[in-house]
Amino acid sequence: MRRITRITTVGIASAALALSVTACGKSSTDSGSSSSTSPDAKGGKAAIAYDIGGRGDQSFNDAAYAGLKKAEDELGIKGAEAEPSSGEGDADKVARLTALARAGNNPVIGVGFAYAPAIEKVSKAYPKTTFGLIDDTSVTAPNIANLVFNEEQGSYLAGVAAAKASKTGTVGFIGGVEVPLIKKFEAGFAQGVKDTNPKAKVLVQYLTQPPNFDGFSKPDLGKAAAQGQLDKGADVIYAAAGLAGSGSIEAAATAGKWAIGVDSDQYNQAGLASYKDHILTSVTKDVSDSVFNVIKSVKDGKPQSGEIRYGLATDGVGLADSNPAYVKMTDVTAAVAKAKQDIIDGKITVKTAP
Fold first, then answer.
1. What pLDDT does 168 receive?
2. Which of 29, 67, 79, 132 could join 294 in a cystine, given CB atoms 3.0 to 4.6 angstroms apart?
3. Which run of H or E residues covers position 120?
4. Torsion sign, CA atoms 196, 261, 60, 285
């Protein structure tokens, strides 16, 4: 997909932003509003606004990009992308989303829960535009599609795999920022580990505390945290930390230990190719399809609205098996397969908080 729009600086005027985004295609004036442009009702233009770390994080944002690219390839839509900047606030996100909506993009998708306050405001100003909000249900409206996932279920499977693959009985979890969403990852992982090996030790560390969200964007923080856990005997480390997670993968691989990826199948991420042999598996979230599906819904004239949940039963979350070394661990894969079925059948209820 060609890079239609890449807004990297939020300190510029909203008018300039709008001009930049409008380069995606011609827009028309909404006769019902003197301050906005009519969205493309046929879904000819769609936009995503990236989360902390931006495109190239080898994880969450890149999964969203894959959905936009698929929509451009298969649906013929024109895609626009907008990047965040370090230390930005809600006002910056409002300006970004406003510019994308004003340019006639429909839908406009905010990648990550941090966009909730901005989408709540901008969706009211552009009621004819569908807004996709990934990982958040706190903000609702007829023109908002809340795209959410059972992260705890996929993380449970990662815990099972980690417990079975560990030789030391000590595994690690690294969270980017200590927020409720990432606590879901921790809860599922720890439960999966303990249900598989009650004697196992789970080391837990968060990189930053809100309002500091550097824990999602700085690989050096993930690398240092992983090194600390390795020094304490961990031989499998699972990080839910966006771009910062690449640092933990590097540390684990350098030490000859196992890393577990997140959001995307990180074994197949080009930017992590040097470490792929040590990426045991990855907890995947079908962010790509969630983005594609909301774009397609608008193009089909039946825009998604409300909570759209992706869970284990529909492969909305899961555990990747791209690493041949993982596939050969038949005792591990068998345990994971059984746990998956037990969750689907309701025999196992996975916690959403530690």
1. 98
2. 132
3. helix 116-125
4. negative
